[in-house]
Amino acid sequence: MQANIVTFTANKLGRDFAVGDIHGCFSALQKVLDEVKFEPAVDRLFSVGDLVDRGPESHLVLEWLDKPWFHAICGNHDQMAWRSALGDPYPNVDHRRHGGEWLDALSPETKEVMGQRLAALPLVFEVQTPNGLIGLVHAACPHDDWTLMARDCPSESDIDCYLWSIDRYRQRIDAPICNVRAVVHGHMTVSNMVVLGNSYYIDTGGWTDQGHFTLLDLNTLQPFHGPGETWMPVSSHRYR
Hints:
This protein is of the alpha/beta class and 240 residues long. It has 6 helices and 11 strands.
């Protein structure tokens, strides 16, 4: 069953990073991890969702989800993928047109496992750091106060906001979300990290030939940049 919020205690041995949308470009992501000398024994990597679709390596997502140092929340593409894989496609959206054709190459057994694993991704993370609590939500936070986030049984409108909303970014709302040091998002593809109040948008298009991956140190809130993929231009995609 999909959890709403999962909380991680502070990492006392290594570093914690967040990364934006991966979209099946795990080899390019690994290059960035190598650049920052990521140490799997002590460091942790938190994904803000959209692990799959569009990129050439979406089928590798199960290998990454099995890594003990890799933790991911659900993005809208992950939701579309698991619903397609489990025979309940997202209404009024052709998942194949938005990068979901990779599922067609999977065996029925693998597709079932893929769907179940993606369906189990939590919707929200919060990570304790020495400098304060960090929240991670794929698209947007439905509240201006982190303490109002539902611990169990979020409403349908809240889930829709978590996975799909672009309103806060589009309206350039820079009022901070209370009772959390920062909230980290993907979903909106930006040329460089954008900070609005204490909301950090870190999907810098590492899955495109015009972008790069951004790793955000969750303790210092310092971004690190790395190479992107070279397989598809961002201009060919209009769907987030």
